[in-house]
Hints:
There is one protein chain. The protein is α/β, with parallel strands linked by helices and about 270 residues long. It is built from 10 helices and 12 strands. The protein has helices at about 10-15, 20-35, 45-60, 80-85, 95-110, 120-125, 160-170, 175-180, 200-210, 240-260, and strands at about 1-10, 35-45, 65-70, 90-95, 130, 135, 145-150, 155-160, 185-195, 215-225, 230-240, 265. Strand 10 and strand 11 form a beta hairpin. The chain is elongated.
Amino acid sequence: MIRVEILTIGNEVLNGDVVNTNSSYLCKFFTNLGGYVVRNVTVRDDVDWIASELKGMLNRGTDIVVTTGGLGPTYDDLTLQGVALSTGKKLVINQEALKMVERRYEEYVKSGYFESASMIPSRIKMATIPEGSLPLENFAGAAPGVLLSIDKTDIICLPGVPAEIRSIIDNSLQGYLKKKFGKSAFEEKEIFVHWKDESTLAPLLKEIADLYPDIYVKSRPKKFGEDLKIRVTFSMLGDSSIEIDRKLKSALSTFIGMLEDRKIKFDTGGS
């Protein structure tokens, strides 16, 4: 089981100015890969807060730490300073990262967005990363991502712009992800139970969960009222998608049998 922690960095998120869709995307993405997301937290643009959270993640021996936000050219983009502080690494100008930033600004000039591709200090800042890091090319923005391995933990630093996160994941991170996760898989199946009271359905869910301890069984009321439907999901992580699918189908079939025995109505196709 590959444990993942996600750290969102940005005053704009905690001020309520920006809805944090990045964390939900990353949680779903790594879960679908077969990862196990154990923690998801947001801090302000503050070096000490960033470093404190990262130190905790490193001390817990988390397999993958993903940060989002704070990689840009401005004074309050402090993520990599926090990474350096928490890991004892120096921030250095990485020549490969510098070339990435240069290429991006040259493209911007050719497209007419900017007048000059000169590597001014604020642009060089985006190529200044913790020593020993691997820069991750960002085809949707100027700031490269960063991959740094510390003992058992891989720290992946991504920008805050959603399109840039997806660009790095879909391109520069693919080799790493395939090597790290291999054939790990995640699958979820669902059923909608026509039942008014989730609390009286709980014992049945406990029974099915005890029969299939490898499967996470979760109930979620879909809507309230006389025609209440409770969405019940069966999800599982594992090394074999074939075995996961087999177990989930078995659990779902057993649960359907339980419902039929109790004359409880259900359907397997949404609302």
